[in-house]
Design a protein that fits this description.
The chain is mostly beta strands. It has three helices and seven strands. A seven-stranded mixed β-sheet has the order 1-2-6-7-5-4-3.
């Protein structure tokens, strides 16, 4: 039995994700989606998924370079603490991200925050 159990491949927990590419998401649409809230234990915050097409530009963010901006062309993901993770993209198949509404200097904008990277 020990030998059998040692050969078991551990799979991650199943997650429910919505397929929504960042280029198709804007502030107004996300504000409409937020009406499904409040989000919490019985009503989890939606996580969105977008496939990785191999075309990105990574820029450091912050003074120590731990954070990155992931430019996908028509949109940008913010990867907090993701500088080390993003360097290896060989097995990357997609992004899991979470939108958030931000206000800076009285300007409201939609930020797309990287939650996870999906790999093979």
């Amino acid at each position: 039995m020990e030998k059998m159990l040692s050969q078991v491949e551990v799979m991650g927990d199943k997650e429910d994700l919505l397929y929504w590419t960042p280029s198709e998401l804007n502030l107004h649409e996300w504000q409409q989606a937020e009406l499904l809230g409040p989000f919490g234990m019985e009503n989890p915050f939606p996580k969105l998924y977008s496939p990785y097409d191999g075309q990105v530009r990574i820029s450091p963010m912050g003074k120590n370079g731990r954070h990155v901006k992931i430019d996908l062309g028509s949109s940008t993901l913010l990867g907090f603490g993701a500088a080390d993770l993003i360097s290896d993209r060989d097995s990357l198949t997609g992004w899991v991200y979470r939108p958030r509404v931000d206000t800076w200097h009285n300007v409201i904008s939609l930020q797309l925050v990287l939650e996870k990277m999906v790999t093979l």
